[in-house]
Write a structure and sequence with these properties.
472 residues, alpha+beta, FAD/NAD(P)-binding domain, 13 helices, Pyridine nucleotide-disulfide oxidoreductase, FAD/NAD-bd_sf, signal
Length: 472
């Protein structure tokens, strides 16, 4: 009798979890992915990705995890061939942080970011996974509950599929919930008698507004530019990010926390960008040709479920990706955390099988460690914006915020400190990396170089900006 695994959701986390399970030939014979959306056969938007039309980046940690889970899939090469770009975090981005402009390093880049539309990234990963094995199938259906008990999950109750009448019980040896921000796993677990899942929420009320532009002639090589929000300014946080994506387009995402939100009004888009702490994004797009309407997203709150802390956890079930934790998308961590969670599953599969006692709990704890650094960075900033809702800062949060704020100031004038922060930002090192004695000393001593008065542009980039802004 075939051994079946079921994955709920064809998200990044879901497809990579399916790939990890399919590679484990000694444990699983088939993997069924349940997805309620009709999946496009090319890079196009779909309803189940509420943030799909906003800016996305794939961190080097996420890229490496994908390449490991889908060996031979060539995801990076396929993305680059399709028009994605690779930009160094410390050399290829123009960034105004809360404490000033970051200098651009001329040294070897160890933090390359893959920049493309979410549609292209999702489709490329899904296609690479499905062409790498014949043991994964996608079924259009919605999960309606879990089968089994608090000791072991034995499958999924499904409904809503094409041609389906009522619910259907789908038996499985293993279930992965990768259904994203809209997961109902807490409700499903409560039906099995597990009700002690701790949860934190930090909601700054962020609203994202995004719009596509045609890349102006002569600006094809202009780097990504971002103006970040200042969580310590006592005012609503406003930010802007311009990313060059495939198809000769700029994807521009503007964000504002509670009390400073952008609107869907096209006439307000450039005005909002002009109101940021520096007008570089507005100057770049003022004369650019819009290719889309303004799209809003309010699915931005930080929410974490501590599944690893429950007194009981059933065998045969894990949650990954946004089903575990969601973050303010401005930090660009979601896809990479999903990939790292799937790699944690893959690593445990290499050691034992899904039927080994305690397997699911070990994977869930490993996935929680992946979440820690991303959660700390996102919440560590969002909890300081005005009118934030949810978890209040602790004394430790206040100390850490003061320390990282000081470190961010030093990083604007120290490549060494900037690189160390990038290790954590890109999820290549955990937060304890920032507490090494040498970094503590560098942070205490202060910046090596004076602050920059404006964006760190090359003469060629400065000329492009001047031409687009009318010389202002």
């Amino acid at each position: 009798m075939p051994r079946t695994a079921v994955v709920i959701g064809a998200s990044m986390a879901g497809m990579l979890a399916a790939a990890a399970l399919a590679r484990s030939a000694d444990t699983v014979d088939e993997v069924i992915v349940l997805e309620r959306d009709e999946l496009p056969d090319e890079p196009r938007p779909r309803k189940g990705l509420p943030q799909g039309r906003h800016a996305h980046i794939l961190l080097p940690s996420g890229r490496d995890a994908i390449e490991e889970i889908v060996p031979g899939g060539g995801v990076r090469k396929r993305l680059l061939a399709a028009g994605a770009t690779e930009r160094g975090l410390t050399s290829g981005l123009v960034t105004l942080g809360p404490q000033g402009w970051y200098r651009r390093s001329r040294h070897h880049e160890s933090h390359p970011l893959l920049v493309a539309s979410r549609d292209l990234i999702d489709w490329t990963v899904r296609d690479a996974v499905l062409t790498s094995t014949t043991r994964i199938s996608i079924r259009r259906a919605s999960a309606a509950g879990l089968l089994g008990t608090a000791e072991r999950v034995t499958g999924v109750r499904i409904g809503g599929g094409e041609g389906a009448v009522g619910n259907e019980d789908l038996r499985a040896e293993f279930v992965v919930d990768a259904s994203g921000r809209g997961t109902r796993i807490e409700h499903w677990l409560s039906e099995l008698g597990i009700t002690d899942i701790p949860k934190d929420v930090v909601d700054a009320g962020l609203v994202y507004a995004s719009r596509l532009y045609r890349t102006p002639e002569g600006a094809e090589a202009f780097p990504p530019a971002q103006v970040t929000a200042d969580p310590g300014g006592g005012r609503p946080g406003r930010s802007g990010l311009l990313l060059p994506i495939e198809g000769g387009r700029w994807l521009v995402s503007l964000g504002g926390t509670r009390g400073g939100e952008p609107t869907a009004d096209p006439d307000d888009f450039v005005r909002f960008a002009h109101g940021l702490r520096h007008p570089i994004v507005a100057e770049l797009i003022t004369g650019a040709e819009p290719l889309s309407d303004v799209v809003l997203s309010r699915s931005t709150r930080n929410e974490r479920r501590y599944f690893e802390k429950t007194a009981r956890w059933p065998e045969g079930l894990i949650a990954l990706g946004d089903a575990v934790a969601t973050y303010n998308p401005v930090y660009g961590q979601g896809m990479s955390v999903a990939a790292l969670g799937a790699r944690a599953l893959s690593g445990e599969l290499d050691r034992t099988g899904i039927l080994a006692p305690g397997f699911a709990r070990r994977v869930q704890r490993a996935a929680a460690k992946v979440v820690d650094a991303a959660w700390m960075m996102s919440v560590g900033q969002d909890q300081w914006f005005p009118d934030v809702r949810g978890k209040s800062p602790t004394l430790a949060d206040r100390w850490l915020s003061a320390y990282t704020g000081r470190m961010a100031r030093v990083a604007t004038g120290s490549y060494r400190v900037s690189t160390a922060m990038c290790e954590v930002t890109t999820l290549q090192a955990d937060a304890l990396h920032l507490l090494r004695p040498s970094l503590l000393l560098s942070t205490l001593l202060g910046p090596v170089l004076p602050p920059l008065a404006g964006p760190p542009l090359t003469p060629e980039e400065r000329a492009v900006l001047s031409s687009l802004s009318g010389g202002h």
